[in-house]
Amino acid sequence: QSVLTQPPSVSGPPGQTVTMSCSGSRSNIGTNYVSWYQQLPPAAPRLLMFRNNQRPSGVPDRFSGSKSGTSASLAITGLRPEDEAVYFCAAWSDSLDGSWVFGGGTKLTVL
Amino acid sequence: EVQLVESGGGLVQPGRSLRLSCAASGFSFDDFAMHWVRQAPGKGLEWVSGISWNSGDIGYADSVKGRFIISRDNANNSLYLQMNSLRVEDTALYFCVKDARVAASLGAGWFDPWGQGTLVTVSS
């Protein structure tokens, strides 16, 4: 059971906009930045978003991130077939000794 | 170009030990914290351990605390994970991951980039 909660799947046709959520608590998302990672199996994950809403160079502006309270969201506009992947959110948790926590991942299907 | 190349994975019996290595290149290794993140077959990501640039700050997931030891050799641009008392549930692809911020504490950055991973299978 992952500490951060993500919906198992989302889907949409090409050109559509989809949003996926990441829910946590005060000790993780509520206090710290959220980052997002895209994984196209069998490849390794790659950074998609950092500090809630900052895109690394090379990530299209179709991807955007936001955070409010203890939840975060990733939105993808103008869906493309190559966006089909699994998306993970992550945040540092201040609980106990401190640790990184991930969501269980959301599988995006481009219909 | 940043490169992270893991090695040392394999098949091991429960209760035995294994040492993973990560060879880093393309950046100033001693400026960045490093992490191990694992992914069990068909499952999500789990942070295993992290170590600050100077080894002064080290953290472990509760699931491995007391069994795994992370270390680094800045002179040789290498990261290690000593895994003892291995359990079946430790079976996973283990990724070596660079922290994105210079000289940051373990929780202050983000993960970028990731190595391709080395597979650890714990089975009798």
Report on this model:
- The complex is a heterodimer of chains A (111) and B (124).
- With 111 residues, chain A is an all-beta fold.
- Chain A is built from no helices and 9 strands.
- In chain A, the strands form 2 sheets. In chain A, strands 1, 3, 4, 7, 8 and 9 form a 6-stranded mixed beta sheet that branches. Chain A has a 3-stranded antiparallel beta sheet with strand order 2-6-5, with no helix packed on it.
- In chain A, strand 3 (34-39) and strand 4 form a beta hairpin.
- The mean pLDDT of chain A is 96.
- Chain B has 124 residues and is an all-beta fold.
- Chain B is globular, with a radius of gyration of 13 Å.
- The N and C termini of chain B lie far apart (40 Å).
- The mean pLDDT of chain B is 96.
- The interface between A and B is medium-sized, with 27 and 24 residues.
H/E order of the elements of chain A? EEEEEEEEE
Q: What gap, in angstroms, lies between the N and C termini of chain B?
A: 40 Å
Identify low-pLDDT runs of chain A. none
**Total strand segments of chain B:** 11
**Structural class computed from helices and strand pairing of chain B:** mainly beta
**Dominant shape of chain B:** globular
Order of helices and strands of chain B: EEEEEEEEEEE
The major beta sheet of chain B can be summarized as: 7 strands, mixed
Radius of gyration of chain B: 13 Å
The geometry of chain A reads as globular
Average residue-wise pLDDT of chain A: 96
Helix content of chain B: under 10%
Assembly status: heterodimer
- Uncertain parts of chain B: none
Structural class estimated from helices and strands of chain A = mainly beta
Determine the strand fraction of chain B and express it as a percent band: over 45%
Strand segment tally of chain A: 9
Greatest interface (CB-CB under 8 A), with counts per chain: A-B, 27 and 24 residues
- Rg of chain A, Cα atoms, Å: 13 Å
How many helices of chain A does DSSP assign?
0
